[in-house]
Each structure stands twice: as C-alpha cells, then as structure tokens.
Design a protein that fits this description.
There is one protein chain. This protein has 129 residues and is α/β, with parallel strands linked by helices. It has one domain: 3-Layer(aba) Sandwich (Rossmann fold). It has a five-stranded parallel beta sheet with strand order 2-1-3-4-5, sandwiched between helices. The protein is globular.
Length: 129
C-alpha cells in the first residue's frame, strides 16, 4: 500500500513526519514524502500522479482546521476518493471539528506510532479483501 505523507502550508517542523515515515516503511508500507511547505494543489497533484492509496497530513502550525477544509473541498472538486488522515499538533478539542471536514481519521497530540501503524494495517487489510 502506498502512503503519501505531506507537510502542508508554512509548517517547517519535519522530525515527526520523518519518524512516522520510517516507522511505516519498517511496517512494510511504501511511503512517499512531499517535503516541506506544500500547497493543497501540490499535495493533491502528487497524490494523483503517484496513485497513492492514502494521504497523510502532518500539521504542527495550528492551521489544521483551515488546511483540512481546503484539502477536503479540493479533493471533492477533483473527484479524488482516497482515505486521508490528519495528525500532528492537534488538540483533542479540535478532533470532532476536523472529522466534520472529511478526513477518515485524526491523530491528536500524543498519539503513539503503534496506533498509527495499526490504523494503516487495518486499511491494508480492508483493501486486500
């Protein structure tokens, strides 16, 4: 299964997403990384071009609601129908608001790597059926 991890907007903090990328690779996933400071359009262009199975957004800048709204809207406009998730510096009180914007899962502050890997393993199992 191919996962695209991205750092949207002006967020320049990349250590967490790189740790996640390595953990997912170790768990047997193919992981692509967009790099820092990508626009919604850049991210979705790469998702389409690479035909990824899942899109993961890592957001630590506090702009998670705005970015998720833009991603969800643009995916709908383009007809992109893949699961997408949001993680990073996400306060617990923002999880419900984020979920209403369209992601399949939100990983709030403090989520353990094992939980993220388990989530992706579940998607992989569903795709295999």
């Amino acid at each position: 299964m191919k996962i695209l991890l991205s750092k949207p907007g002006l967020d320049g903090h990349y250590v967490g997403v790189k740790v996640l990328a390595h953990a997912l690779k170790d768990a047997g996933f193919q992981v692509l990384y967009t790099g820092l400071r990508k626009s919604v359009e850049n991210i979705l262009d790469m998702a389409e071009k690479q035909q990824v199975d899942v899109l993961g957004l890592s957001i630590l800048s506090g702009t998670h609601l705005i970015i998720a709204e833009n991603i969800g809207k643009t995916m709908k406009e383009r007809g992109i129908q893949i699961p997408w998730v949001v993680g990073g510096n996400i306060p617990a009180q923002d999880v419900d608001a984020l979920m209403k914007l369209g992601p399949d899962k939100v990983f709030p502050t403090g989520t353990q790597l094992e939980e993220v890997i388990e989530y992706f393993n579940n998607i992989r199992e569903q795709k295999a059926k």
